[in-house]
User: What shape does this take?
Amino acid sequence: LLGPCGIKKMTERLVMTMPEAVNASGMARSAIYLALKRGNLQARKAGRRTLIAVSDLETYLANLPTYQPDA
Assistant: This one.
């Protein structure tokens, strides 16, 4: 889709708020903040809002260890 200036419109959001990240990931809010504190996940601040790039959250989740049931 093209916007009025001929620039491609973005149909998907680039970032999400902390509540949206919690909802999308299924993780606890405290677990996401812990990942931020450890440097495993990046966030940006816009005023008081903490924003997480969708691509960063996807990468973080993809790099979590896989479940290994006990034998």
The two ends are 51 Å apart (CA to CA). The beta strands are 15-17, 44-46, 49-53. The first strand starts at residue 15 and ends at 17.
